Amino acid sequence: MLKILKYSFYDLMRSRWSYVYFIFYLLLGFGLLFLNHDLSKGVITMMNIIVVLVPLIGTIFGIMYYYNSKEFTELLLAQPIRRSRIFLGQYLGVAGSLTMCLTLGLGIPFVIYGLFRSDAIWQFGLLILIGAFLTFIFTALAFNIAINNENRIKGFGYAILLWLFMAVLFDGIFLIALITFEQYPLDNFSLLATLFNPIDLSRILILLKLDISALLGYTGAVFKQFFGTHIGFLTSMSTLVLWTIVPILLLIRAAKRKDF
Amino acid sequence: MIQVRQLEKKFGRNSVLKKLDLSVGEGGIYAILGPNGSGKTSLIKCILGMTIPDRGEIKVNGLPVSQSWKYRKSINYMPQIAQFPGNLKLRELIRMIKDLREAPSDEDELIHLFGLEPFMGQKMAHLSGGTRQKANIILAFMFDSPILILDEPTTGLDPASLIKLKKLIRREKERGKTILLTSHIMSFVEDVADEIIYLLEGVIYFHGTIAQLKSHTGQDDVEHAIATIAEIKTPTYA
Fold first, then answer.
1. What b/e string do you get for B203-236 counting C-beta neighbours within 10 Å, with b at 16 or more?
2. Is the pLDDT confidence value at A100 over 90?
3. Is the pLDDT of residue A11 over 80?
4. What is the mean pLDDT of the segment spanning A85-90?
5. A17 at the B interface (CB within 8 A)?
6. What is the ipTM of this complex?
7. Which residues of chain A neighbour B83 with C-beta distances below 8 Å?
8. B50, B69, B73 member nearest A74 (Cβ)
9. Nearest CA to A80 among B90, B20, B70, B191?
10. What is the architecture, at CATH level 2, of domain B2-82+148-237?
11. Which member of A72, A80, A259 has the closest CB to residue B85?
12. According to the model, what pLDDT value does residue B36 have?
């Protein structure tokens, strides 16, 4: 598996798009810190961009890589390698290289602007960790969509819909539900609903760590009570881990049954 | 060497292989023939474990292939479509397959034979279809595995390379290898094949030598003989 990982990683590191992604974050980081020297504020702005953009890029790269390397996958399938290793290797290659672009692209400007001398380092670390989780989650989801859809256009469509749902529609539905049932106590409902969307979960996790939960009003207080504690933090982290592992297991299952 | 028993495969409602039985002994060149959609590639892919059969059993070297992967160490496969990761250079691709198979290989001789030296440093995406097919040949022939499976190996080759390919196939046969190939080019099949397996709609209609094929159909010419089998449509095992 490590060999497959190595080669997909090499392959991606040479593709122009990886550099575009890397340079985009680099420019974004420098631009932001140039305009606004406050690292903490930089982290907040970055978070707003990352929770939407990282899933989108993870989804698109995942689906594109799977479809583009289809013939190559067939070549690998004829080699003496376990099936699950091939797909796991390719998946880790894509998710790993995207995470690297993110970490380096944002890391370089933040370090140059004195990240190690500021107290924003933990917040920045969390931001990168969340970014990595979102990359791994959405790449895995994209691989699942791709492996179950022979038709590229359909696969691409489903992937974009998934992203749209998680990043935009989920919040809308959530909001409508809150307004419709406003007579009822909804704290636990909203807490639970948040766990079902990795994007929302990530956003709230960072917001609360940044101590700006006062902006969130009463619900924010409930959230703070939950996420602010160690148990809450661990629960949400393990939920993110589950969000990563379950799609990977589904991917392995689909890979074992698929005809090529 | 390869035993196939009661193999069945459906894609949706379309039954591609119907209770297919086939036994391929050790050594020799076996040509799997049949019109488009007759199940040739599906049969090959089932043997390779790329397609998972609905029913039936396949054994390679006496061991069942389902859920197994180690048996593929004894098989080299040349797929129909020569597509490779575009960002890799030819040299890197060869090195990668060597690295993955961890087996001794003699690619230098083959690279020289097909004159691929000038392309070694080029990215796969920049190579022409014919050159990619030559790379495909090299990847399949550079290892010393007892079984070779070639799916339409002649596609996109120029006449000179075709002659080289035929020589290579014969040389591998002399080394005692079992070679399974598909082709639509009858002259090529007549030139290299020892036995012919004729597939139609997922059933084997003929399995025997070229001489048997000719005497069975009463035709002197392989092309006509094959056409005759397709018309008779009664399974025969010579």
1. bbbbbbebebbbebbebeebeebbebbbeeeeeb
2. yes
3. no
4. 91
5. no
6. 0.81
7. 70-72
8. B50
9. B70
10. 3-Layer(aba) Sandwich (3.40)
11. A72
12. 86
